[in-house]
Design brief:
0% strand, membrane, MetI-like, 13 helices, 73% helix, mainly alpha, MetI-like fold
């Protein structure tokens, strides 16, 4: 009689677990190892007290990291303040030596007293407001002009070859050289000041944007072409966002050039319908041979430049670095 029974597979012992290939964890940048602790505790089969303690330790470490990031880094505030205090002490020490007459090198308290006088007269507020609104308005108009021009030159090779050297030449040309020509063309009006600001800021912004576009990987353009992006969409949605680091550097340099150009124009172009700005205050101190007014104007010009950097450009640059994962190695 034939044996029709099929062979029976050997039973697998329930006590023996099938071997599985280990999965390599993805390496993350976590100096405290908190994420690894949490992952290890959650993926274990046992729920013993040791695992729970490790899980709590990992969660506490993650929470402490978040608190540390949210905490204000007082060194960023205290160190610059300490540097300013040291400079004031050195300044006062030099004045105390009596190497120069007090009317030539006033002390910090003399300048502070002059600040109070200018504030009481209202000329300090007028000068700061006039120069600040001129500088910001001129810079914003420069950005509106330079951005499309920079994108066009970066995208169209013949235009870049034709106008690139000219833009670079205008960037190195001292903007104060435009003041006499602007006075002849526009007279002693605000148009003279704004023209000098434009000629100082626009070339720097254009060159910064072109430099940022040059650093974009070619794969970005290939992806945009595959997705069917038009030239305008490619420029606005792909090229410009990818070129932000270089573009931001150009904006910072453009602001610096525009602020310096503004001061040069206000110092030279005096009278007419041009208002009283910080450059005018500096020129007034020179005419009166009053070093306290001169030093007050210099310190105000310096303070405005520092505040624009700290309140406008530094937060934007920090957020940009954070979004691109480049802040870890930065000293900011």
């Amino acid at each position: 009689m034939p044996n029709n029974s099929s062979p029976v597979a050997e039973p697998v012992s329930p006590l023996v677990e099938p071997e599985s290939s280990p999965v390599e964890p993805v390496e993350t940048k976590d100096p405290t190892g908190a994420a690894e602790k949490v992952h290890a505790a959650l993926t274990r089969s046992s729920t013993g007290s040791a695992d729970l303690r490790e899980l709590e330790s990992g969660l506490d470490s993650l929470q402490s990291d978040a608190v540390r990031k949210a905490r204000v880094d007082w060194s960023r505030v205290l160190l610059p303040v300490a540097a300013v205090v040291v400079l004031i002490i050195i300044w006062q020490f030099y004045v105390s030596l009596g190497l120069k007459r007090r009317d030539q090198v006033p002390g910090p308290m003399d300048v502070l007293e002059q600040f109070g006088t200018l504030w009481a007269e209202g000329s300090l507020q007028e000068a700061v407001w006039t120069s600040l609104q001129r500088g910001l308005l001129g810079f914003l108009i420069s950005v509106a002009i330079a951005t499309p021009v920079g994108l066009l030159l970066a995208q169209v090779a013949p235009l870049r070859r034709a106008f690139g050297p000219l833009i670079s030449g205008l960037q190195v040309l001292p903007s104060v050289a435009w003041v006499p020509a602007a006075i002849i063309w526009f007279g002693l009006t605000d148009a003279t000041v704004y023209f000098v600001v434009f000629m100082g800021a626009i070339p720097s912004i254009i060159n910064g944007l072109i430099s940022g576009v040059d650093q974009i990987p070619p794969q970005y353009r290939s992806v945009g072409t595959v997705l069917g992006a038009s030239r305008l969409q490619m420029a606005v949605q792909i090229i410009l966002p990818a070129a932000l680091p270089g573009y931001l550097s150009g904006l910072k340099q453009g602001w610096a050039f525009s602020w310096r150009s503004l001061m040069a124009a206000e110092i030279i172009a005096v009278g007419g319908t041009i208002g009283f700005g910080l450059g005018s205050m500096l020129n007034q101190g020179r005419d009166l041979a009053d070093m306290t007014i001169v030093m007050s104007a210099i310190l105000l010009i310096l303070a405005v430049g520092i505040l624009i950097e700290l309140l406008v450009f530094a937060p934007i640059e920090k957020r940009l670095l954070q979004r691109r994962g480049l802040l870890a190695g930065s000293t900011r």
